[in-house]
């Protein structure tokens, strides 16, 4: 969690630093994975050495196979150890990656929660959902494969180099010379791939947002006969994604091709050098001392010399993918928790006051001042109706009182006993039962309380018709419920909530007269319980319910009257 | 041969049936697929050739060198094997690069095809099928599920085929020198191949099948969490809802851990198996050498050829452990494609004559199998030419369902809907919908500019026409003050706008459409009275001569009435009240 203040705005967290911090949390497991990789590499060297030794014993020393049983058994042992160590490396590194991804997701979720609903309203929630699910999962390869392999790619070639140098120093020099070239090539290729990969990630996020948007509005597309053009658009977007991907891949594959080339050419060059050396065609250097054993060992170790680097380059796209994902995720984490320009302050309130605003205004980036400066005092237990033309700033004022927006200027005090209750025109309906949806507001409410709340919101009759009652499942956005029913369900939550302050945005916007009367009755009951109600509304009946009517126009209070 | 086979062939047959339509889809690009597999095979073949020939060469030179050192006369042609080694080295590099690029391009081409195909499938579904599913699950269907199907070719078809080919090459190579060794090794390698393909798939089947669904739920919870942040924060239930997210994450990671272990097992077994077979080959070849049935260089070449198989086998365990994910994706997409609730056009669909339109519901009933809302029950209703009718009713009474029947977003379960006396099912969908402008109960705005949202109704509309309809709903002044005016993005689902602004933008979009029939569902909801009255007056002029259906909760009671209503009917729980 980055505790940003307006002063420190951008705390400079970079994708690389964030990934390094995450890796540091599971350093022990990652080290264990590297150790297992080293053991596997050592076992491979032993295996190859034994293989060459067996061949040499058979062909040069003319030992019978029966006399080499122990060598075969030892080779089997080395093969077994290698398999075990490989298994261990994979399992341990995966565990580290799982733990790291869990921590990263929790950190991000916490930050988004702290940013609040109004700051998130301008973002695609599907895009954010994708970031919190897919893009965090995209970090997997980096921690599970790339990081351990990065160390192994340095250590294992050095060990093999030492063995080869002992056998034939000229070969070792050849290998050594090829070594610095490889990372150079890879860095060149990797840099380009990384940038492209980031672009591609942005494209994937946009693509996800585009799809969800089109699918959500598919009814409108059907009604306007736009489904054909929309599916063409879908194809065009996907094809664009392909072209972007191919640009990335052309470079990404180049880095592995470079390594393939080195590995293949090294085997070819060494095979020819060793062969000519064994024939005695080369009359300089150590080649006169080459034997079948040393020659074959070198040949078998040459691919192993390049193998760790080849694996690394295969996992290089894991790194690019993780950096690409981390870029977007860190941008979210770096988003300061409050507006830079926010100079408004919060203060306490007098005992009998629920809301106290002094010279408060709100600004949205790019849209300028949307509200204020206004002064408003709401007495505890009173009912305030916010009225005025649409777009006058009623919703913004409610969001300000709720604390979803910070004041740009002025002082504000809100009494938040037991939190507050909230209902807007797009109620949250979770994928679950009716009871699950209600218990969001009151986790410990019993069924009788739930039923009572539904009754007060005018849903009693509907519930009576449902065979499964409170256990009836609802889909996303309240599928199965009509718009008005969904809104009444959200209203039932208000009734259940113990909050003293109730903020309502158009609570009767789509209710029929019977439910509407029930709702107004319920709101009156809430007011009589001593709760403070702030209602943005156009409805005359709700205005009569109010003890104070505040009229807004173009973000300013133009009239304030007490009933 | 493997536990999977013994468990009964029916499960595998089912798997085959599920993947079959997608294999056929891939088959449309058969040439690219075959070419890609051949490139893959040449890479593996070159690897085998390189290592085997190098081993042969070193041994041959060593033995010749020993003879020469002993003073004997010996000759070895070094140029042919040397050239062969260089050839294999270059082939391996080039064909690997080309193969990877070519195959990825193929796969992404397939994906773009598949995405468009699936979107068309979705666009053809009726309202009930569309609303039954969660929007975020759809996203998954359209992207992740189709992405998962790429593994069909690049991960699941080509590699095992190439591995089989490589086994064949090695076995033929071995058998040509000593048939017995070839036979034995062939059997052992086939068993290993079988385990890596069938065994790994069997072990990983259930956790990998669950994976996509778990991710789906996790994403759904996260999106709910972020969209409902206001209410969750108000009620202090953030941590409670967060628990739902974390529980799903735990389930995800339990399966991932299990799959990771299975994959690690497969990888270890592949390495172990190939290396042990290599030792076995060496042993058998050594015996053959002692029996003078085999030369020394060939004895060395044989185990090295086997060792090169590592490359062909290494990719199998990870791919086949995840087979269940491909299967689950294929199954979900199959269900969507085979959905019975598609709106189908008849082959003889007729167009509609120009001019005024009469719409009728004739004893139309609508029954949603799993909806809480009451079904429409034998509704009969006539909208005469140029008539304005109001259909009243509480929320959930079935008003929106009537609109869906009239626009053929949904076909009636019984009865029929006619336009100028012709059943809607006989008409071309395009013709029908171009005659009707419909403002739905919830305004669906797209994450695009104001202009793009408006032009859905009439793509060829000029800017002046857009300003005119914005004027009609009194959004023109507001839009003019925006820095980017008509190009201002409206946010996801119009969230950058207030509820009233979004509603008016939806209304403006309908106004832009020139059609003889207009259906307006609560046109003034969320608007204050004076504004609603002014808009109603303009609406009156625009509606002149059109056949109009208003869907409203009630008339009177302080609400602004839609203009020019000649007749009103009341709907109560899916029936017309007398």
From TrEMBL, chain A:
Segments traversing the membrane: 29-55, 67-85, 150-167, 173-193, 251-278
InterPro entries in alphabetical order: AAA+_ATPase, ABC1_TM_dom, ABC1_TM_sf, ABC_transporter-like_ATP-bd, ABC_transporter-like_CS, ABC_transptr_CydD, P-loop_NTPase, Type_1_exporter
UniProt subcellular location: Cell membrane
SMART domains named in the record: AAA
Residue ranges constituting the ABC transmembrane type-1 domain according to the UniProt record: 32-321
Secretion signal, residue range per the UniProt entry: none
Keywords, alphabetical: ATP-binding, Membrane, Nucleotide-binding, Transmembrane, Transmembrane helix
Classification via PROSITE patterns: ABC_TM1F, ABC_TRANSPORTER_1, ABC_TRANSPORTER_2
Topology term for the membrane: Multi-pass membrane protein
Residues annotated as domain ABC transporter: 355-563
Listed name of the protein: Thiol reductant ABC exporter subunit CydD
Organism this protein belongs to: Litchfieldella qijiaojingensis
Organism classification: Bacteria, Pseudomonadati, Pseudomonadota, Gammaproteobacteria, Oceanospirillales
Gene from which this protein is expressed: cydD
From TrEMBL, chain B:
Stretches that traverse the bilayer: 33-58, 152-174, 180-203, 264-286, 298-323
Location of this chain's protein in the cell: Cell membrane
SUPFAM superfamilies registered for this protein in UniProt: ABC transporter transmembrane region (SSF90123), P-loop containing nucleoside triphosphate hydrolases (SSF52540)
Stored Pfam families: ABC_membrane, ABC_tran
Bilayer disposition of the protein: Multi-pass membrane protein
Residue span(s) of domain ABC transmembrane type-1: 34-325
Keyword ATP-binding in record: yes
InterPro entries: AAA+_ATPase, ABC1_TM_dom, ABC1_TM_sf, ABC_CydC/D, ABC_transporter-like_ATP-bd, ABC_transporter-like_CS, P-loop_NTPase, Type_1_exporter
Signal peptide residues on this chain, from the entry's feature table: none
PROSITE patterns attached to this UniProt entry: ABC_TM1F (PS50929), ABC_TRANSPORTER_1 (PS00211), ABC_TRANSPORTER_2 (PS50893)
Domain of life: Bacteria
UniProt KW keywords: ATP-binding, Membrane, Nucleotide-binding, Transmembrane, Transmembrane helix
Domain ABC transporter: residue ranges: 359-576
Protein name: Thiol reductant ABC exporter subunit CydC
Organism: Litchfieldella qijiaojingensis
